[in-house]
Design a protein that fits this description.
Oligomer: single chain
Strand order of the largest sheet: 1-3-2-6-5-4
Strand content: 35-45%
Low-confidence stretches: none
Number of helices: 5
Number of strands: 13
């Protein structure tokens, strides 16, 4: 079921009008694509808490605009530099028959049972936290799971290894060989090993100096 958000159209625009809306706890915005762009405003608190929902950023939303519902995607929003206040919001209408491009969050699972972690004591490093995909609106996933269960120390999962839902393909600048996640030796362990290697020659030299010379 699509996430719903209600908005009303507005006729007044400009900096002064937007400032008055924000003082009234409303957020100015715009809906564009597949027709004329429409200036809107939305209740601030409703929108603020909706933006905290990960799915709100990567789902086809149902926008109730003046009582008429239409399918949209969240395309952009601006926050105040230091206040917890949404300044502006942009939505794009979607066509059910046309593919859309979206950045979808990656959810990593089974990290605790990965051999590189459980057996070798490595740590997971997330190279990518989201993946840009293309699909029809009906096939858009809210997130994509990345299974780390078989990941060994020093190895990586690549874009080509990610299992995509039906109807979904990788888009954007990604390449099949791009790393998504790796298992690395903890930094502290690497530094300790390097320090031990550096100390070894000095220790050997000191031991050699302390050894008495052989009698002729």
């Amino acid at each position: 079921m699509a996430i719903e958000i209600a908005a009303v159209s507005r006729k007044t625009q400009g900096t002064g009008a937007s400032r008055r809306l924000r003082k009234a706890n409303r957020v100015p915005g715009v809906v564009y694509g597949n027709g004329d762009a429409v200036a809107i405003d939305i209740d601030h608190n409703t929108l603020y808490y909706a933006l905290r929902n990960e799915a709100f950023h990567a789902s086809v939303l149902s926008l109730d605009l003046d009582g008429k519902k239409e399918s949209v995607l969240l395309r952009d929003f601006q926050m105040h530099p230091f206040r917890q206040q949404v300044q502006h919001i942009d939505f794009q209408r979607v066509d059910a028959k046309k593919k859309i491009h979206m950045k979808v969050p990656l959810h990593f699972i089974n990290a605790d049972v990965a051999p590189g972690v459980k057996t070798a004591g490595g740590i997971i490093s997330h190279v990518l936290n989201e993946l840009e995909i293309a699909c029809l609106p009906a096939d858009l996933p809210a997130s994509i799971e990345v299974d780390l269960a078989k990941l060994d120390l020093g190895h990586s999962i690549h874009v080509s290894d990610v299992k995509l839902p039906k109807g979904v393909e990788v888009a954007g600048h990604h390449h099949a060989s791009d790393a998504v996640a790796t298992v690395q030796v903890p930094r502290g362990a690497v530094e300790a090993a390097a320090a031990a290697d550096a100390a070894a020659p000095a220790a050997d030299a000191k031991a050699a100096e302390a050894k008495p010379a052989a009698k002729k």
